[in-house]
Amino acid sequence: MTASDQERYAPGKHPSLPPPVRTSGPIGWIRENLLSSPGNVLLTILSVAILLYIVPAFLQWALFEATWRGVTREPCTTPDGVDLEGACWTMVNARFEQFMYGFYPEGQRWRVDLAFLLQFGSFFALLIERVPGKKWTAIFLFLIYPIIGYALFHGGIFGLPVVETRLWGGLMLTLIIATVSITVSVPLGILLALGRRSNLPVIRVLCITFIEFVRAVPLITVLFMSSVMLPLFLPVGVSFDKLLRALVGFSLFAAAYMAEVVRGGLQAMPRGQYEGAMALGLGYWKMMGLIILPQALRIVIPGMVNTFIGLFKDTSLVSIIGLFDLLNIVQAGTRDAQWRGLANEGYLFAAVIYFMFCFAMSRYSISLERKLHTGYKR
Amino acid sequence: MAIQTEAARRPSITPFWYDQRIRGVLFQVFVLGGLIAFIAFIIYNTTQNLQQRGIASGFGFLWSTSGFDISFSLISYKATDTYGRVLLVGILNTLFVSVLGVIGATVLGVIVGILRLSRNWLVARLATVYVEMLRNVPLLLQIVFWYFAVLASLPDVRQSSLLWGAFSLNQRGFYLPAPILEPGFSWVPVSLLVAIGLAFLIHRWAKRRQAETGLPFPTLRVNLAILILLPVATALLLGVPWTLEHPELAGFNYRGGTVLVPEFLALLFALVLYTASFIAEIVRAGILSVSHGQTEAALALGLRHNLVTRLVVMPQALRVIVPPLTSQYLNLTKNSSLAVAIAYPDLFAVFAGTTLNQTGQAIETIAITMLVYTTISLGISAFMNWYNRKIALVER
Q: Rounded CA gap, A203 and B229, in Å?
């Protein structure tokens, strides 16, 4: 500041100078974040090269040069039958209903829509804090909805025609398997976790054996066991639905993982909580139900959501035991002679759907973690 | 409450089922009895079912001829070999893909995890996109994508060319030269073992000397030199006791060299990329868990940046990283069983798949498969727990 400046402006009256170009604004940002050192410049160039190599080509294929309209192969090919460069989304158009509902009879699909509408509607009502009536929503979702859901999906009650489970498929089947196994695994996992920390040696050993054994083997062996060995375990002549067998295996598998998550919460409870509850004269179940579990479960909700994400992805394994879940039905679609060579389109479509569900759940888990985070953060 | 005070006043007439210990014992007896009854019920049903279906039981089938071919095997295997050998081939194939997968996923995961923390905005975003994309799509989908979409679009064998006359990637797999060992080769691994022993001794000596005198020693550089130079020198002294057999195009296929089948490549790629996205998150969380105060204090003591990372940040971050890393290694090994979807002959595919179908002995095959996986899992856990204890915080 020169002397003349001091004369012209009273103290504190000097107008603000423009920010220095080199350390602020877009240029400053680029210098700071992309070009701060020679190594950084190199990394930036490399990243830009990778992006330029992948992104335009992908967008060209998937969006700009793709064929969107129609339900046959013809729009995707030149008149002599050679495939065009871009993606052929007409396959997804043609098979969209099948990818969603499997082989569910067309006239009955409103039942699936209604069931999922009820399920997700009440589920979101539970999640969003501002919606009132949590207690009644929960009672509806966990006690009444299973009956309604069964009636709608399977039929046979309330005059709805029966739709056999072998006709179920697509995203609907994926969601059913995920929902059922998650719903069963939480209470079962809590019981297993309590058993693992129990004072009774027999219970403890049984729970540890079950949890550790299931966690040590791959899910696919558990599914195989339930689909191949379960029929052998039942009395002669009694047979089980294929989907039900998969659900049994899946739920037991999920419960073992859930038990470990819940155990983490139980271990995080200070001893004082247990002692306080006992000093109040509460019995074991009252102590757990009223004092310990409400606090322990609150801590482990993010961990549970992460387990749910894993389970949701793992539902794709039922395709190996021959159920037509989303992945399997998309694969079946790409193997159709009419759509030969369109594997990329099918897999991308399935991947986007799986991604949407998992990503939404993981964002929810992160926001929960932030809300529950009580420690300090820098 | 009222009941309890009443019970306390008249302890003599308290019914025995209000005693917590007796209750516990009764409950356990009840559960155990129920379990035994349940198992007996299952065993009875199973024997009935097996009799009715005419399925043999017992493990005798392990010594009978399998009669099917396996596309990829680390040990010699023919269709006339026994089911026991099939099991061995499967175990080795599972271990092979798991070990390579663990190494690849760790390297890639650590790199991506560090890149996510990079101060370069673009690189950090790219790493985030990688992690989010791969981790939110089922592994099975990725495996079949690599196999049916990517590897299937590779050139046909006859249209493929040899890179540097030695490597070729085509629909039949990845062809590469095979070493043919000559007499005297066994000295090379021996020299490598000697080098490892020597490096270990130097490491211990340098550590003790630094603890006593404070004099540092360039252990890493010296050991790397020993580990590389000693085997190389041995090999050169012996006149390079191996020759490389290059693959050559002969008719419809390559002859010579070795081939990694496309099933293996697809499985390995998918396992590495998928698991790396989880490891990246673990590494990132581990590094972030080291508080700023530690870094600042180390810098204030005058340590340079690379020393701060090596001596202050990493040892503390590892404590957070290792336990979840262990479960990722276990997951990778277990996930290798998804090979069955693309017919890579791993343990599950050849044993719980083909062998089960041929013999019909579901209980025995699945039991053996589960037992092997349990053993592998326990082995990995034991090793990682040992490592974890080694790096754990020693509290006084």
A: 58
